[in-house]
Amino acid sequence: MPCVGDWLNNPLSIVRGLFAQNVPNSDWEKKVTEYFKEKLKENNATNWVPSLNDVPVHYLKPNSLVKFRCMVQDMFDPEFYMGVYETVDSNTNARVLHFGKYRDVAECGPQQEIDLNSSQTVTLERQTFYCVPVPGESAWVKEISFFASQARVSPSTSYTPSRHKRSYEEDEDMDQHPSKQKEQHMGNNSGSDIHGCVEPKRLETEAPAGHNLISPNCSPPLDLNFPLPGEKGPACLVKVYESWESFKVNDVLEVYGILSVDPVLSIVNNEERDSSTLDPMECMDTAEEQRVHSPPASLVPRIHVILAQKLQHINPLLPACLKEEESKTCEFVSNFMSELSPVRAELLGFLTHALLGDSLAAEYLILHLISTVYARRDVLPLGKFTVNLSGCPRNSIFTEHIYRIIQQLVPASHLLQMTVESMNRSRFIPHKDYAANRLVSGVLQLASNTSLVVDETQLEQGQLDTTGVHNVTALGNLITWQKVDYDFNYHRMEFPCNINVLITSEGRSLLPSDCQVHLQPQIIPPNMEEYMSSLLTAVLPSVLNKFRIYLSLLRLLDYSISDEVTKAVEEDFVEMRKNDPESITADDLHKTLLVARFLSLSAGQTTLSRERWLRAKQLEALRKARLQQQCVNGNEL
Amino acid sequence: MSSPASTPSRRRGKRDRGSNPSTPQDARSPPSQKRRADDSTSTGDLQPMPTSPPAEVQSPGAGDALFSSPPQFRHSAIPLDFDISSPLTYGTPSSRVEGTPRSGVRGTPVRQRPDLGSARKARQVDLHSDGLAEDIVATDQSLGQKLVIWGTDVNVASCKEKFQRFLQRFIDPLDKEDEDIGLDLNEPRYMQRLQEINVVGEPFLNVNCDHLRSFDENLYRQLICYPQEVIPTFDMAANEIFFDRYPDSILEHQIQVRPYNALKTRNMRSLNPEDIDQLITISGMVIRSSQLIPEMQEAFFKCQVCAFTTRVEIDRGRIAEPSVCKNCNTTHSMALIHNRSMFSDKQMIKLQESPEDMPAGQTPHTVVLFAHNDLVDKVQPGDRVNVTGIYRAVPIRVNPRVSSVKSVYRTHIDVIHYRKTDSKRLHGVDEETEQKMFTEERVKILKELSKKADIYERLSLALAPSIYEHEDIKKGILLQLFGGSRKDFTHTGRGNFRAEINILLCGDPGTSKSQLLQYVYNLVPRGQYTSGKGSSAVGLTAYVMKDPETRQLVLQTGALVLSDNGICCIDEFDKMNESTRSVLHEVMEQQTLSIAKAGIICQLNARTSILAAANPIESQWNPKKTTIENIQLPHTLLSRFDLIFLMLDPRDEAYDRRLARHLVSLYYQSEEKMEEEYMDMAILRDYIAYARSYVNPRLSEEASQALIEAYVDMRKIGSGRGMVSAYPRQLESLIRLAEAHAKVRFSEKVEIIDVEEAKRLHREALKQSATDPRTGIVDISILTTGMSATARKRKEELAQALRKLIQSKGKTPSLKYQQLFDDLRAQSDTAVTKEMFEEALRALADDDFLTVTGKIVRLL
Prior knowledge:
The complex is a heterodimer. Chain A is α/β, with parallel strands linked by helices. Chain A contains 21 helices and 19 strands. Chain A has a 5-stranded mixed β-barrel. A 5-stranded parallel beta sheet of chain A has the order 12-15-18-11-19. In chain A, strands 9-10 form a two-stranded antiparallel sheet. The longest helix of chain A is centred in the last third of the chain and has 27 residues. Chain A is elongated. In chain B, 38% of the residues lie in helices and 19% in strands. The chains are: A alpha/beta, B alpha/beta. At the A-B interface, strand 2, strand 5, helix 9, strand 9 and strand 17 of A face helix 1, helix 3, strand 3, strand 6 and strand 7 of B. Strand 2 of chain A pairs antiparallel with strand 9 of chain B, so a sheet runs across the interface.
């Protein structure tokens, strides 16, 4: 009987047990997933599973159960593997059946040899995803989820919470603490004697493999292909065994699986490279491709997925899945809904302060932050709400601070400084590198509901070169159609996305936007820096958390318009057109409807009421008046 | 030692593994037997093959050795050199006996087929007398029938016989392929092919698997499941027939049969472990090809001591180095002599899924191909190809010297046949390859749809449902998507008639013109989307580039050429600069693009429909001006558009109300509901693709009559007022529209209703775009000459009035500009604007009546 900790520390032994019980029929696979599903359903069991997001790879036990919250950055080709294979003992001729699922290397004892011709062999297929941590994930998301699991980090790991700060440093500190590492492994081994045949070898080879990574004789440091520059965290090769067709590039997943950092994988790598001159069959992958597709396991660990689910959001303050009709989530939602309006008022006040006392802009900012593409009508994305905040003070740190505040509120965000230089130099669109056979990421490869803040105030006059033009066009396409055309060299491919873009600029932005709000600062703080940072420190963490829940939750609500209100809106539109056919177009109706939608949602209402519609019209009128005023002023100047 | 070319695991894995993974047929056969078969090198006594004594029938292992290697006993007919070098020596018909009069075959060496793999090589044994073999084949025919190749249900003799029958008898007069030029379709197709081989000397026989399937389902299944065994048998059969017929023919090597178009797999994504070791056909795009890899087939060793030489063949990817010299018994004295060893060509190619096959939101899959011998360098990166080959999976060894194995297989395809799908695009016969594969059910659905009476309305509703109303515009675009029938008048010197319909949308900004364009671009498989502002003439047409590495000039094609047979959507047409627009003249009428640049002079096909959108010059459409004046496009270009639509913001309450309701519904309807309401985009796409490739309507008698009448009517309207209101171009447009409408109905005949709709649509578009704002009369000359007839008349009158005015002033050499203007205004009974006045002055200046210098008008 496997004890409680076994499914966490040594899931393979569970699998082995289930395999042995159920062979030769093939439903052992189903049994395995069911078993783990049950285990994870238990009270807070998910928190017991160490997460690769929080704990550095070298503190995790190899072959233990881990979880990983990540975005699918690239998909590799499916691979065929030995699902079931047979080994023959060279001395006794005893034949043993093994399973190859959830493993990288076919296990086989020192005296055993794999019988490649066995009739028992079953070939199966699995898919590999290259996953990176969610790009632009806010620090608070990491922190909160870290502390959630922290309390119960499994005692068998020698990992101590105090070392958290170091955790994101790469494998360098592995070298500094080789003894610690060994110790750790020794500890691990004692628990799992079944692994005896593989483990000794592992121990011998681990250290040199680590050295190789940094030593100069090895190829240049591995590019982990993060979409955003300066990102940290582990990238993972996630091996998916079931229904991989349902996952798409840029999906955010949470996977539970078996961590595999078998150093043999890295050795395979090195050896193959050395012998590639000898072996034409092996060189069918170029060196680059090899590096990308089988990087050293210590840098890019493998996870053999037992359970995987798409995440609707990555906000750890919310229950993971809101669509499920569980009483717990319902309760959570209704509880929060009851105190919605004070939260909204508080948030509005907070953002008004952040926007230098402009409450209209703050109102629009809330609408922007809860906007999401909820449907696509043929090519037209519905529900995107790109706001252009014009009239921002130039050359000040204003945008940066706005970004910092947004970062505190949303789970994932990125600040894009638009300068001629950065436009010309960086690569926004992901493109396929055929030599390495991978999708090289770009800034615009972001997960759904990421907030992208574009700072146009820094833009100076200058010439854009080809890359620059491409980048600006891509950004424009992203805003208008909510899609990015990935460059596959011989053709382009469209990837729909759902990114909230906020543009800050002095005048009207050169990028398209759904709505331009001209900022009218009421207060000019003498010291912007101080003002802004005091603003953030003044907010209580509990209030901040409420803001976070508010913004993430409202995005997921459904919305409808009753027939009555539809009629009223119709009447209204016809009336407006009658009075002033020049200035009211279908486009305006679109915008007002959008504003009305998000306005209703922001108040927690899932249907449009007449009052909200009027309020939306009022807001739009205010906004337009401001723009017109701005125009007049501009002309006078 | 393993030679450089050796591949430690491949051969073995290829053959052996094949049986293991889930290929159901193979599962029956215990692997131990297979191993025995492989080892049969030593069992020389199995040799006299098909002729084997009845006793052996009972032993499957032996039977395998016999029948799976039928070619081996034919060696004697071949010069020794070839004999040894070619391990897979099938192909020479077994009836070739020494001394037969038909000795031509002896000049034709066999050539091994690395594409099929050569696991059987190991079983090769020394030659036996053929004569004996033949006799027994003849006598033991009945016995032979029962023998099958080990692990399969293939009987060599019957398989061969069936295939020969297929070659000799297969006729399908209806199935026309583009390679079939010069074939008499009522004669056995493949016999003609063999004749061709005799003439041309290219010893490859391409066999369409579809033909084979319709001829003999079972044989086809065998081919798909056991290509490695069946194809050599086919080779044998083909060669037998060939050398029977053309005994004196000498080929480079023996004929190799290359099946293609296997139906097993079409899409790379659907490859799965079941396909391993089967014959598959997949389509994709070549993304990378490797250097040529010489693969050692036979090593040449020489003893360092006594200079004794020996040859060793590759065996399952390895060369066994002789450790002892047979001659002098020195150990480890044998050295490999590279330049006397035999190598074969091999190339690694990466194939990527074609973009159309990919599900949205996923990255394309790739698969590795190995091309051998003459297939090396047949394709370049960027080519779209259909590949037929055998799917292989090989285990990866962690370390060649260690027995542990990574649990992952490496997969690749050994290429047997390539078929490029887009190379013909430049030649213009691409309909055949363009055809999407429609399943029968799909075709049935489409045909049913086409029978609906309101299919035209239905389709136009399905088009861009998010864009409100503008039904006529949608209908116009729908007809554009279908296109007319292509007519060839080359023999009468007029070249091809354009079948594509060009449409211009102009109107107020914010009337979702761009959205419509974007929709069309997304709908059609070969669409291009450009913006007038951002495109240059070069980007639209083609440009010549110098490759920095090879210093070679390369022709890069632009949007127009890329959208050949598709639709080129050009947004902000008015913002396009003059020189860029001028390129369109040729494209829009002649449907070709001429390039004369950097020493490259050529004419490319650009049979593209153009869907353009233009904004009015004054940002808002001025209803008081003509179309030309509003969008400022040259009339030469405008007249090339079949339909010009105005997308105006109608100031109409009822419209507003409907629009509002439509928009509001967008904001709360769930996605599922939307799907239900409208025809799915995929169906629409298939419907159009099907109509485009299969329906080719011709004008019926009545329809032609109706068209003539319509045209005459149009001419008449104008002639009443002394102007021409229709030109032959308009008639051509009408024909195209009528044809397109017939295509919508899947009708092979253009009938009256088609003409009626074409007339209606054409009139509708004219009404919108060619109405003279001053008179309210539809006036085609606005589009053809850029000015309405009345405007032209008025201009002339004004010039005459001015002339009279000046003449009435008597003999003054010069006049003040402003004064003259005032005088004219005073005299004229209609308002004269400054522009009109200037125009009149210019007209007079053209007549050499006066010159204008600054503010002074001088008489001449």
